[in-house]
Amino acid sequence: MFKSAKFVAMAVVAGLAASACSGSASGGAEESSSGDTLVVGVDLPLQGASKDASEATVNAMKLYLDQVGGKAGKYKVQLKVYDDSTAAKGAWDDATCAKNAQDHVANAKEVAVMGTYNSGCAQIIAPVLNADPKGPMLMVSHANTYPGLTKSWDPGDPEKYSPSGKRSYARVIATDDYQGAAGAQFAAKDLGLKRCMVLNDNQTYGKGVSKAFEDEAKKQGITVLGNQAWDVKQPNYAALFTSIKSKKPDCVYLGGIFDNNGGQLVKDKVKVLGDNDKVKLITPDGFTGYPEFDGLAQAEGTYLTFAGLSTEVLREEGGTAAKLLDAYKKKYGEDPATNYALYGVEALQVILAAIEKSDGTRKSVRDAVFEGEGITIPAAESAVGKEITISKETGDVNVLDISVLELKGKTETYLKPWPVS
């Protein structure tokens, strides 16, 4: 599964490199003094289906950093963008994530990492940053929803991500134990569904969110017809859905990411089982923010969950989020391609607040989040419009928003919030 690693220190798309620092130094973080420039690594998949979402997230972060003068307290701050995907795979790659982890640690000026987008990549990078002898090195994700990164889920979770014995991984988004459950509750209570087939992409995120959906669906009285992995390398899934058809499902739940041949999967679902008004299609956030998915005729009518608030809602609520979105649209001519863009800014806000409280070293940046008073971003300043507090015990966030979206007219339209219970 491992391929030769490719490390892209600067963004590979035009315009992303302007705010990124150049070069990479060997060794860990060094003592910094007032006026020094510190680096925040940004680790995202810049190739394949996630490219648009990653570009939008980086652009939003750059825009926000410019708005605050490129500083956190007495320190100048620059972003350095790392690509954790490969062209051959068209998605995040295990070996590239492993290489990036070493390069984060090796860059002496880098004090924290924003990312990753994919939970499986975070599983690789987080323990390396945590074991850094000049750290632990702080990592804050805007999009990792796999529960085990911060709480007990699979064997060894979450301790295996903190080999130093001290936590250094945090996130600003709700987790899949909530998201999967919300999808199942929506299926039962709003759609009245009774027989659901669950498919997963056999990756960390996909298996986790599928398990959460399955467990809650059973509690809600839905008959789960199976929880089966789809082979991401298959040219088509006609045989898979033909075998499912005999079970007479009224729902298919796709737990995974669109990058993993999700387009073909959706096409064959409709070809064999019928349109989504006949057999409902429900996905988690692994299918949100992909223009290719939104543009599929066969995807029309899909219900999606998102572990946060949609861009549409954040604009309507006003405040910092709306101002940032307006500035983004003025500069780039459109809203961000992903609902996760402002959560990328939120994660950056946590990192900048930690840097401001620090002495400029990796250890003190991490300690600012997990020791002492910790980090709280007031609602008036928060990129997502709510007061954000990171738990010093777990690294999880206090806000657990879940949104239900519906794909209508090639647009992911906000349908309703889903209460976390």
UniProtKB/TrEMBL annotation:
InterPro entries: Leu-bd, Peripla_BP_I. Residues 39-370 form the Leucine-binding protein domain. It holds the Pfam family Peripla_BP_6. Keywords: Signal. The keyword Signal applies. Residues 1-25 form the signal peptide. Belongs to the leucine-binding protein family. This is Leucine-binding protein domain-containing protein. It comes from Streptomyces vastus.
